[in-house]
Amino acid sequence: MSVAGGLPLAIARAHLHRCDTLQIFTKNASQWRARPLPPAEIDAFKQAAQDTGIAPIVAHASYLINLATTSTAVRTQSVGALGEEVDRAEALGLLGVVLHPGARLSAPPEQAISLIVDALTQVLDARESGKTMILLEHTAGQGSTMGSTFEEIAAMLDGTKHPERMGVCLDTCHLLASGYDLCSEDGYTSTFQKFERLIGLERLKVFHVNDSKKPCMSRVDRHEHIGKGCIGLEPFRRLLNDPRFSHLPMILETEKTESRDRGRIEIDLLDEMNLTTLRGLLSPSS
Fold it and tell me: Residue 181: which of 214, 209, 148, 216 has the closest Cα?
């Protein structure tokens, strides 16, 4: 949800849409700089979360952060920016910060994983008393982005010294695009068997539920409205009614309705469409 007009308004928007969980950006996702969070705004956000019962709430880190880079300047900026993201999420009482691990460019995958692990360790070493998690998002594998296989994610998690502060975010569009076949029942079963074997279901903390404009193994990250892409409705029905995941937050990242006044609190017709579709797939007992 948009934080236009102040962070507490994101909770108001989520509540208007009858949401149980929420993802926000705590700063502009396309800029390095971030405005300070006034104590009054932090307090109002926490109070709104308590009043509505919306939980857990997660933040998504800036798209500029690249922990896999070999550029000293970009790496320094990225580590500092991730630390700031964690600090902001900590101040707001959020479950965690969802993070794209980064792009390796010309570096070998093994070097990129080592760089990512080192950066994660730096950030968490400096915040040992915190509770906010870093949630590595599995990626579609576009270009040289890291984290498109469960093996890579497992290596990143296993290398850090703070396992209790690390988790995983799975995105349904990214899973399909990177080659994990969610569409068939056998493919769905084998995908999560492999995840459990290599990473462990206990480390899965959040889902992004998005259909995909592109087919399996396309390695192209293009989200589509639920049921209108290459995944279709049945895999989402399977996911939403899987008892292993009934306790996990599931976040929409689908296209929103364009609005001239982004500071208003109003129903987004596209969000409402996707939420209605998903709610209609839930069995009465789920």
Answer: 216
Distance in angstroms between the alpha carbons of the first and the last residue of the chain: 24
Q: Is the dihedral of CA 175, 111, 103, 99 positive or negative?
A: positive
User: What CATH number did the domain enclosing 26 receive?
Assistant: 3.20.20.150
> 232 vs 36, 173, 176, 215, 237, CA distance in Å?
42, 11, 11, 11, 10
Cα separation, 79 vs 55, whole angstroms: 27
Residue 286 in any domain: the answer is no
Taking the C-alpha atoms of residue 275 and residue 66, their distance in angstroms, rounded to an integer, is 32
Per-residue tokens: 45: 């956000």
Alpha-helical (H) ranges within 144-203 are 150-159, 172-178, 185-198
Q: What is the mean pLDDT of each run of 10 residues along the chain (286 residues)?
A: 96 98 96 95 98 98 97 97 98 98 96 98 97 98 97 97 97 98 97 98 98 98 98 98 98 90 88 98 86
The boundaries of the domain holding residue 66 are 7-281
Does residue 2 sit within a domain? no
